[in-house]
Description:
Blueprint: E1 6-12, E2 17-22, E3 28-31, H1 36-44, H2 48-56, E4 63-65
Antiparallel strand pairs: 1-2, 2-3, 3-4
Helix pairs in contact: 1-2
Amino acid sequence: MPSTVIAAMHYDAASHVLTIVYRGKRGVYHYFEVPPEEYAAFRAATSKGTYLNEIFKPKGYLFERQKASASG
């Protein structure tokens, strides 16, 4: 079942950066120093939103919101 919170996710294994595209106008966030096993657990979660809010966010990964482009 698609997530009601997350539109897309991408993980860069070389830099350990997880990019999450949130639905609506919530934006795009880059989470840093995310271990591969964390990403694997996130991908395997039945509910991405529940995993995000109850397990992932409380771990306190550094993050940055992507700035909107000039055309968007």
